[in-house]
Design goal:
CATH superfamily of the largest domain: Response regulator
Distance between the termini: 35 Å
Structural class: alpha/beta
Shape: globular
Number of domains: 2
Helix content: 40-55%
CATH class of the largest domain: Alpha Beta
Largest sheet: 8 strands, mixed
Number of helices: 14
Number of strands: 16
CATH architecture of the largest domain: 3-Layer(aba) Sandwich
Length: about 400
């Protein structure tokens, strides 16, 4: 799949003109230096299971940046070495060991927060930089060789919580429901911190459902009825993928037509196409009840970097880019910059040092930079599910927070 995607990306560049694209997103130097020694970059992502789609987005975003920049980082030809992270700390460790055995200059990717936590010590001991491009647990602190271009798991909840604290009318009632697991607890904690842990508009303790990647048609019914018995005006939830689609269907089947708020993963990817019959009337009008989400990226952001990225991504892969693809594209961008700063014969320690010196990134999400914990200081956006032409989309509403 990655070889096909790379060919499609190169075909796109040939059609659009490589010179203009490379100038728009490549090095700041007016002259392109002669190619340095080839380097290897490890790409860690799941090849199977519920994280496979996110892993493919991560691979797509990374390969697109390479294709748009002559298959080089900092003037060095790049070979990408993909490995399967599996679904636990042990399989993640095996993936890292495989890459270290191949003398990679740096690593990137990682979808599962449990895998990220599990490989922390191995990465730090090896002193080879890892640019994580998906969820990062808040507990991952005091690291030297792990950087992230995505977000920390409590941030989407905190951004939405602070927004709702300001905008939800007095006397409103909001219920919280999410699957069991540490990721949910991180998201919920962020939401409570942003909203105010003692705010009376939050009714009852969070309801935790059974964690399932492919839940059945009645998997959430009992928990949804428990939440609805509290007579909420709004629901905050944390689901994604097939579980997110099933949760929304079961909410509607239980005749909940109020507002739903969630981190953007609820509606990211192709979920909205699957939910069209649930959310849209026969006359193509939206059914009652809004779905609003917080995320660090929206494919319709109006800036030069995003126009370039989103257009190239759509033409290459025939879909709109996700936050996962964008963060991986940015992981490639920061590696490009750091490797150039590291000099003609970079080693992993020099690249890691250079990562702290690259400054502001001109990203499709908007400008950002690494903070002291090596995560982005970035804007967060509110998106609303509505029509964009005839397509059901996550439409950007406004900016709601800057975190990091």
């Amino acid at each position: 799949m990655s070889q096909m995607n790379r060919r499609r990306a190169l075909q796109l560049l040939a059609a659009l003109g490589t010179t203009g694209l490379a100038a728009a997103c490549g090095t700041d130097d007016p002259e392109t230096p002669s190619a340095g020694a080839p380097i290897k970059i490890g790409l860690i992502r799941p090849e199977n299971g519920p994280g496979k789609a996110i892993g493919q987005d991560i691979e797509n975003g990374f390969q697109l940046y390479l294709a748009m920049n002559g298959q080089q980082f900092g003037g060095h030809p790049v070979t990408v070495v993909p490995v399967d992270e599996g679904d636990n700390a042990k399989t993640g460790q095996a993936a890292v060991d495989k890459l270290l055995a191949q003398n990679v200059l740096a690593m990137t990717g990682v979808v599962n927060p449990t895998v990220m936590s599990g490989i922390r010590d191995a990465v730090e001991k090896a002193r080879v930089p890892l640019i994580g491009s998906n969820a990062s647990p808040p507990s991952l602190q005091s690291v030297v060789y792990i950087w992230r271009t995505s977000y920390v798991l409590d941030e989407p909840g905190r951004a939405l919580g602070s927004y709702l604290r300001r905008t939800l009318p007095a006397g409103s009632r909001i219920a919280i429901i999410a699957p069991e697991g540490t990721a949910s607890l991180d998201v919920i904690q962020g939401f409570r911190d942003g909203f105010g842990a003692d705010d009376p508009r939050m009714i009852g303790q969070p309801i935790l459902t059974t964690a399932a990647t492919s839940p059945g048609e009645d998997a959430y019914d009992a928990d949804i009825r428990q939440a609805l018995n509290r007579q909420p005006d709004a629901i905050f939830c944390f689901y994604s993928g097939a579980a997110g689609a099933q949760f929304i269907r079961q909410l509607r089947r239980n005749r909940w037509f109020g507002d739903i708020y969630a981190p953007g993963f609820l509606t990211e990817g192709n979920i909205l196409a699957d939910l069209r019959s649930t959310l849209v009337n026969a006359d193509d009008s939206l059914k009652a009840g809004t779905i609003q989400t917080s995320l660090n990226y929206s494919a319709d952001l109006n800036n030069n970097a995003n126009r370039l990225f989103a257009s190239a991504y759509r033409k290459t892969y025939n879909v709109s880019p996700t936050t996962y693809a964008m963060a991986s594209y940015d992981a490639a961008q920061v590696l490009d910059k750091a490797i150039r700063l590291a000099g003609a014969e970079p080693n992993p320690q020099q690249v890691n040092l250079a990562l702290g010196k690259i400054g502001q990134i001109d990203s499709p999400r908007g400008a950002w930079q690494f903070n002291q914990p090596r995560t982005p200081q970035q804007k967060w956006y509110l998106r609303k599910v509505q029509f964009d032409g005839r397509l059901l989309s996550n439409v950007l509403i406004n900016e709601i927070a800057t975190l990091g």
